[in-house]
Amino acid sequence: MTPPVDDPSRRAVLGGLGLALVPAAPALAETDRTAADRAAPAQAAAAQGWRLQERVPWPEFMQGQDLIWGRMPRTWYEGPFLGDGLLGSMVYQEPGQNKIRFTVQHGRVQDHRPQFGSGWGTCRLPVGHVTLDPVGTITAVDWRLSLWDAEVTGTITTDKGELSFSACIHDEVLVAEAEAEGEEQVRWTFHPEDAVSPRSASEAAPSGYTPNPAWTTATAGDVHQVLQPLTGGGQTATAYRVKDGTLLVAVGHSFPSATEAQETALGKIRNAPPYGIMKKQHRDWWHDFYNKSFVSLPDQRLQSFYWIQLYKVAAASRVGGPVMATSGPWLETTPWPAVWWNLNVQLEYWLIHGSNHLELDSLTSTLDRNRDQLVANVPEAYRADSAGVGRSSDMFANRSVGTPGTGAEVGDLTWALHNVWLTYRHTMDDKLLRDTVFPLLRRAINYYLHFLTAGADGRLHLPSTLSPEYPVTPPQDTNYDLALIRWGCQTLIESADRLGISDPLKARWVEVLDTLVDYPADANGFMIGASTPYAQSHRHYSHLLMVYPLYLVNWDQPEHRELIEKSVAHWQSLTSAHRGYSYTGAASLYAMMGRGDTALSYLERFFDPASRYPCQANTHYAEAGPVIETPLSGAQSIHDMLCQSWGGIVRVFPAVPASWQDVAVHDFRTQGAFLVSAVRKGGRTSFIRVRSLAGAPLRLKHGLDGPVTAVLSDGRAASVKDLGEGVVEIALGKGGEVLVYTGRRPGPVIGPVPVSKPGDAWGLPPIPPPGPTTPVDLSGSFDNDGVSTHEAMTDGDFDGSGYTYPAEELPPAGPLSHEGLSFVFPAYGDGTKNNVTGQGQTITVPSGKYAKVRLLGSAGSGAVTSTLTATYTDGTTAEVPFVMPDWGGQPGSGAMEVLRCTHRHGRTGANSLRVGLFVVQAALDPAKELRSLTLPTLTRPQLHLFALSLEGPR
């Protein structure tokens, strides 16, 4: 089962496909030559040069991808978001108030007390937020997040007039401008926030932890300052100025200096250029950014999603900046206020390669400048030659790593270095390989080598280590680590050969590859580790790393296809623990198999409101708190359908779904440092253009039907070898370009493709005013107590595990209004039942004709996708479908969040899961008079209704 050790550029051709290189084939003749051309081939070739034309109407195209708000966003995962790789802001309603919040958070602001761990001692720290405070009551909003200009603009209508505003972030300065009409006024207010871990909302501080000192204020002319000293050393300083309706906010952070941050923030405000100049500089940067690559899909909603992710990653990361925290620069209340190295970081950065945006690679620069810390993270006995990083850390990678044999998770640095290696492969920058990849990977693999031992079978084995997040006793020979060891040793050998390094450890690396135990597998596919089958649902695909993204076991190896397929199918068959990236990961795995339709079906599950953790209105995502890796990995899933470049072969349109009849990519960067442009029309590839940035060997799996023609940009025929299986090798020097096609030469033009699947803009569309609503009394059917007070957390049991909603954060009993809908919220108290579960109950309703039923509640143990049975007075019945989100999940489309608690109560105290209540709707027949509604009979997941209303026709 162990893949052969060989050159990665030859692996798929020689090892994977089992083919030998064949002699060079004669250049294929062009089919449209004239007789004169044939008589003078050299002159004809020179006359038939070509040039790729880009016809992208950028402002108009990007406007079609914008996010639009026709109603007020109430949370971070609904609102517009801004960033420049360091400073970040999200825009939504100030909770419970008639104000608009602009959060102010910074990627470098963190605590500096590692003795309290990454969740408290070195976590990212909050800074504050600004509010725009209307005089009147807000009645409507109309906002747009322009991706092209990276700017949010809009209006806020109140009963006193209107406020119009625009905001962007440039050079670590939040710039917002507002104007008022009518009786409105422009009023900006900055609100400092305490420098305490975002985990404080859901858990107690560690023993011995002391709070950071209180912030103080100062002024310097017309600039106001908030100064936050830190107990562990250093300072955070915020400077802001309001002048003529224009707001400027800047944040500085210094460590160990206790004063430098103040001068940094103050200088940002004082040295800010005039508003018009700053806006032009800002827009110029973003316009240049987008021009580096182009992707167009026929699915409008998915196309917009893709471009929003490019905007998002550029707003969250830049070379030289801090590695992205799990919430990016948009810190909110969350259990994840740090950097997670066992999946999150890797997924966050994959899309920068294909999209040709290596200027965003703060992961590589973070590892490069924190080498000493990576060495210090391993036990002292191994620091002479090893390095590592624990599961979570601060921006300096400060987190110790345990040792194999103790069940520790030890592979995270090696996996992160795979991302750095991908940056090398997409640039072919030997300096990066020599100075960063090779020395750091050598240390990461050395750490493993200290613990490998020979067994009675003569094979090398690894003592117990943790397969990330799999909740069992850590086994020996975990597939997660075996895959990383194999990839690391193979890459070190190949790198040393390329760099001409005679490394004394090479013989050891070869020995490891020759004798390392095979990947444990059983009848269901790859196991977690030796004697540990994949036997319970697991969101993480750590046990499948050898398949994706390492491609050590891959679809080009026919002998492994059955094992790959049943491993992925078994992983996906146990779904209870799955999260959004379980679906994006499956999409990429099926894309590797060339199954575009299956890949798309899994990706679409991430957008399905019935999923427990779906993509949200602004394309953000949450698991108990904000996390940004999964939507970004969704963009990589799209990449994997459009172009792959593993195993030394560039694969163009390898897994395009049948519904994507027309597709265009331009300057898609691949391994080997190639820029690929290609167009698909009517389900067939029209042409492929490849430009070489480094002169690496080009092996192209083109997907064209029939004999191919390859022409250099000056019209000369390219030298082509047919390697079989649709793969050709083309001689292309550094800077060279080749056009590959079949039949008559096309005019190579790149532009947007027609949209065959229209879709609404991301954001929040306006809600039509509801018809009159009639609350229905559910009290006679209540059968569950899902609420408890802080003083009596053990009262009630919402989900069968003893968890409940916190009473202190729920509405009072009685009338409740939400978005024009009327409900009656139940009473709650010790021992009081307050919601009805789905047990087939029939609810008698006030007789009348209704267009919709509105359900206020949530689900436990996953989202509920089910039906109500509507019974009408004429004796007819109808099944009425609905989807109720899980109480710890997100609403998805078709659902509205009424509230989100900061935590839930449990048998042992407060728990960090932020649980919500939602309103969902189901359609009724408005022409018939309704008599009753019958609930479904459910077990897990379970429905919980707190209130129900019927909406009449408008």
Structure write-up:
- By secondary structure, the chain is an alpha+beta fold.
- It has 4 domains: 21-56 and 659-750, Immunoglobulin-like (Sandwich), CATH 2.60.40; 79-290, Beta-galactosidase, Chain A, domain 5 (Distorted Sandwich); 361-540, Alpha/alpha barrel (Glycosyltransferase); 767-951, no CATH class.
- 23% of the residues lie in helices and 28% in strands.
- The protein has 20 helices and 52 strands.
- The strands form 14 sheets. The chain has a 10-stranded mixed sheet with strand order 12-13-14-15-10-9-8-7-2-36.
- 51% of the residues are buried.
- Residues 1-47 have low confidence and may be disordered.
According to DSSP, the number of beta strands is: 52
Task: Give the structural class.
Answer: alpha+beta
Low-confidence stretches: 1-47
* Oligomeric category: single chain
Give the name of the CATH architecture of the largest domain: Distorted Sandwich
Strand order of the largest sheet: 12-13-14-15-10-9-8-7-2-36
In percent, how helical is the residue content?
10-25%
Main β sheet profile: 10 strands, mixed
**CATH domain fold name of the largest domain:** Beta-galactosidase, Chain A, domain 5
The top level CATH class name of the largest domain: Mainly Beta
CATH superfamily of the largest domain: putative glycoside hydrolase family protein from bacillus halodurans
How far is it from the N-terminal to the C-terminal residue, by CA? Answer: 65 Å
Sheet-strand content, in percent, reads 25-35%
Q: What's the shape?
A: globular
Provide a count of the helices: 20
Could you tell me the mean pLDDT? 93
Estimate nothing, just give the exact number of structural domains. Answer: 4
